[in-house]
UniProtKB/TrEMBL annotation:
This is Spore germination protein. Keywords: Germination, Membrane, Transmembrane, Transmembrane helix, Transport. It comes from the Bacteria. The keyword S-adenosyl-L-methionine does not apply. It comes from Clostridium mobile. The keyword Transmembrane applies. Pfam families: Spore_permease. NCBIfam families: 2A0309. It is a multi-pass membrane protein. The chain crosses the membrane at residues 12-29, 41-61, 81-106, 112-132, 144-163, 186-206, 218-238, 267-291, 303-322, 328-351.
């Protein structure tokens, strides 16, 4: 195992949470409140079952195959040709998530911050920054996640100032939404939980594998707390009826914060949160590049990085408007989730079969 790919358990935790938490902080409250209303937090907990299920499988597979990441297991059980095809689909799934992220942040910045830049220019600029980061290697990516993790926590705590101006009646009544609408909210919110799949690529590189279970469940716990907190604070301050009419409710809250010497905190929040989202974008691009390199065995790693960025640019720019982006994120996101569940579950079944034969 290459020394430059060894990560600590804490870095493992921040990579998992950093791959999941991103643009969802801005979109999730509106997504779940549209159906679940005041019970949106229940929808979030139900949506959490998706990464939790992957976590259970990851713990089992990492115990049985601690030195083999999922790409190697795929070739072992499906054969080189079919296994690599499945691996390439996984790489494209990562790039799909990256394209949705960079497309959304392009709309956010053109609407709230970078009025002088077009959405396509923002996408190109972020792709360049992303490329410059991932060519530095996995260790730099892991350290980036570690640093930005603390920035993320601070940024999510700042809106707590809205507690003194909100209304507790906005979060009431609870348990009044019918189960069908709660499930619809969970379906809309589940796309914000994509990213746990990355754990299957990096668990062999953890310095202390005995800590995988502890730090991975801690990562999911932090993700759940962050999303529930954002859902609560936006609902508490804005109310259900207002949230449903907004695209990015969290941004509206930051506009109302009064900070000495700061004219409008919204600009600072969007700028800082863009760096958080950029970290998530870097993760997805790196994992897709890692998969391309594993499949094609390029002599130079930069070839796989370049392929990922080119595909990212082509797909992201093809999203013509926000409505189309939202539609494709729901449609393709559903396909990605179903594929990941089948792909990872099937491999876990083969691992279980091997374990039975060995016993």
């Amino acid at each position: 195992m290459e020394k430059d790919k060894i990560i600590t358990p804490i870095e493992f935790m921040t990579i998992i949470s950093g791959t999941i938490i991103g643009i969802g902080i801005l979109t999730l409250p509106a997504d779940v409140s549209k159906y679940a209303h005041e019970d949106g937090w229940i929808s979030i907990l139900i949506a959490l079952l998706y990464p939790l299920y992957l976590w259970v499988i990851m713990i089992y597979v990492s115990n049985k195959k601690p030195n083999n990441y999922i790409l190697e297991l795929s070739r072992k059980y499906f054969g080189n040709i079919l296994g690599n095809i499945f691996n390439l689909i996984l790489a494209l799934n990562f790039l799909y998530s990256a394209s949705i992220i960079v497309s959304y942040i392009g709309y956010v910045l053109t609407n709230y911050l970078s009025y002088f830049l077009s959405r396509n220019n923002i996408i190109i600029l972020m792709a360049i920054v992303c490329y410059y980061t991932i060519i530095k290697g996995f260790k730099v990516v892991s350290r980036l996640n570690y640093i930005v993790f603390f920035v993320t926590i601070v940024l999510l705590l700042i809106p707590s100032a809205a507690l003194k101006e909100g209304n507790f009646l906005n979060v009431l009544p609870v348990f009044k939404t019918n189960i069908v609408d709660v499930m619809k909210g969970a379906y809309s919110g589940i796309f914000s939980f994509i990213g746990m799949e990355a754990a299957f690529l990096i668990y062999p590189f953890i310095s202390d594998k005995k800590q995988i279970k502890k730090y991975s469940i801690l990562a999911l716990l932090l993700v759940a707390l962050c999303y529930i907190w954002v859902q609560f604070i936006t609902l508490f301050y804005l109310g259900d009826e207002v949230i449903k009419k907004l695209r990015w409710p969290m941004i509206i809250i930051t506009e109302t914060l009064n900070i000495p010497l700061v004219n409008n905190f919204r600009y600072i929040f969007i700028f800082l949160w863009t760096n958080v989202i950029l970290k998530t974008l870097v993760n997805y691009c790196f994992f897709s590049s890692f998969t391309f390199q594993d499949v094609f065995k390029f002599k130079n790693d930069k070839i796989s990085y370049t392929i990922s960025i080119i595909i990212l640019l082509i797909v992201s720019i093809s999203y013509k408007n926000l409505i189309r982006t939202q539609y494709l994120s729901m449609l393709l996101g559903t396909i990605v989730i179903i594929y990941n569940l089948i792909y990872i579950t099937t491999i876990s079944i083969f691992v279980k079969r091997d374990d039975i034969y060995e016993k």
